[in-house]
Amino acid sequence: MPRDDVKGDGGPVTMATVAARAGVSRQTVSNAINTPELLRPETLARVNATIRELGYRPHRAARSLRTRSSRLIGYAVRPVAAAAPTPVLDRFLHALTESLDDAGYRVLLFPSPGGEEETGTYAELLREDTVDAFVLTNTVVGDRRQSWLHERGVPFVAFGRAWGTRDAGDWVDVDGAHGTTAAVDHLVARGHRHIAFLGWPEGSGVGDDRARGWREALERHGLTPEGLRARADGSIEAATDAAHRLLDDTPATAVVAASDSLAMGCYRALDVRGEPPARLAVVGFDDAPFAPLLRPSLTTLRQPLEFLGRECVRLLLQRIGEPDAPDRHALVAPELVVRDSSPAPPTD
């Protein structure tokens, strides 16, 4: 008996495979399966013939979404290293849960190691008709989850862009480049001309986006970014080492950090060196709970997590109600919160 995992030309037969062979869109294939009355007879006949030829079987859970509802939304929880806390996702999950509760849904949390193994968990939940849809987080370059769900017609929304993945689906994201641009503009207005960037290793979609905003803002102000970028993983220890290098090797008087955790590395480096906090202006990103408690209190970019949670729920409910609608995206600017860590550069 044909199955959804029957191999086509180099891979499983999916809705996208049928669409390509029949010369129609994925939406047309979906209509042929779910609402055939919307199609012209000749188009419907061609799609159905292709479905039979390839042995395609729509995923049972996706096919039945129109007629059943568990009122549960799946959300994968990944392990978090103690050295790299992610309070943003904790706060986002709380905002998401509240918004879904208002809409009559609950969140089903399940553990996942991430990567390709996560799609196996999705497949199991769908086979068991456990959830109606998914919310994705931690999107990365080359992430296959969006395409996997999109090809199977499973409703989902991602908190984070697809970063070049084909068939991206619906997503809501924070405009990191806009945020670091605002940070540079703020520091330039304070009189800084040597503004460094402390970010994650190259290849991170989020990190590269935030670095891009910093670089383009410097160039717009006629300042050079050359030699003023350092990279570290998410740990405060690695950030401290990177901040030491910036202070040793560059004339930087200010640093824009890709996260508040990385910004803390700058504080630690100054403390170890016995230099005063005013030696280096620091701007973080995320407005973590500890940001206003630091001394000096941290200037940072605040993500509007309550709004982001509501936007994710809004797009997800629209997708559940309109499975064949065009993809929807929302890119939201963060807010610069100015505190004490970004003074003017010291004068000789």
Automatic annotation (TrEMBL):
What residue stretches are annotated with the HTH lacI-type domain?
13-67
Write down the InterPro entries for this protein, in alphabetical order: HTH_LacI (IPR000843), LacI/GalR-like_sensor (IPR046335), Lambda_DNA-bd_dom_sf (IPR010982), Peripla_BP_I (IPR028082)
Cite the GO molecular-function annotations of the record.
DNA binding
A Pfam family annotated for this chain is Peripla_BP_3
* Annotated keywords: DNA-binding, Transcription, Transcription regulation
Could you confirm whether the keyword Nuclease appears in this record?
no
Family annotation (Gene3D superfamilies) = 3.40.50.2300, lambda repressor-like DNA-binding domains
PANTHER family, alphabetized? HTH-TYPE TRANSCRIPTIONAL REGULATOR GALS (PTHR30146:SF109), LACI-RELATED TRANSCRIPTIONAL REPRESSOR (PTHR30146)
Q: What is this protein called?
A: LacI family DNA-binding transcriptional regulator
